[in-house]
Backbone:
């Protein structure tokens, strides 16, 4: 179980619970039987709010029809119904209602959503490490720790980075923008964009620059920068 946990980037207790509660009648773990058991536990004992409130359902559906994302819809429901807290939905509730069968929202997700996916994408992928966003030595520093001169854009050497992936995530480019000058550098990541590959490529770029141009790097919480501490160690950023 520990070996599986390491390879999948999960806690060993998660693997233990999965194996113990999703065994078949012969106490074997089989993927098909495990999926059936997991799906059965997801059965809802109460109807969704959009099934009970047709006014709320109509408001959500109208925004879906004009290509609003579930997140946008969720954020504006408080403005649409300021005096009725019961007509608030989380982003996740809208996604679940849209992809579920037999509810009021009957539109095809491929027509309503910008992603045009018929099935929901998992929140995390097997083999992909989740970023450490909590406390501890590997935690991501909050953006409030960024030097004030980086926010002012008056001193060179403060960068913003992002990852752009190609079709089916088969290719990737890291973009680096210097905040004061707007200078752009593109870093090609051939084959894969794991945290090891990404951090190694960025380290090579920044170590080739003068130290005065390597003050800080702002990045989102993508898993490609899970090993950000190695970049700091190598560059002093």
Residues:
């Amino acid at each position: 179980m520990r070996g599986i946990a390491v390879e999948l980037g999960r806690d060993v207790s998660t693997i233990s619970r999965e194996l113990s509660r999703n065994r078949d009648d012969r106490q074997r773990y089989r993927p098909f039987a495990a999926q059936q058991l997991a799906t059965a536990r997801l059965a809802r004992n109460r109807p969704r709010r959009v099934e009970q409130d047709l006014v709320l359902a109509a408001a959500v559906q109208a925004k879906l029809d004009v290509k609003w994302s579930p997140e946008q819809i969720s954020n504006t429901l408080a403005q649409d119904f300021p005096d009725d807290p019961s007509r608030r939905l989380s982003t996740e509730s809208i996604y679940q209602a849209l992809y579920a069968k037999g509810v009021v929202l009957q539109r095809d997700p491929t027509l309503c959503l910008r992603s045009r996916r018929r099935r929901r994408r998992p929140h995390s992928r097997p083999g992909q490490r989740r970023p450490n966003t909590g406390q501890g030595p590997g935690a991501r520093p909050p953006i409030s720790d960024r030097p004030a001169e980086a926010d002012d854009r008056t001193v060179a050497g403060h960068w913003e980075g992002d990852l752009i992936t190609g079709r089916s995530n088969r290719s990737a480019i890291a973009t680096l923008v210097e905040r004061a000058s707007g200078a752009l550098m593109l870093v090609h990541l051939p084959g894969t964009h794991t945290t090891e590959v990404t951090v190694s490529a960025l380290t090579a770029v920044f170590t080739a620059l003068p130290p005065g141009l390597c003050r800080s790097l702002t990045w989102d919480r993508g898993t490609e920068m899970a090993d950000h501490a190695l970049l700091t160690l190598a560059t002093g950023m």
User: Anything to note?
Assistant: Residues 52 and 180 are 53 Å apart (CA to CA).
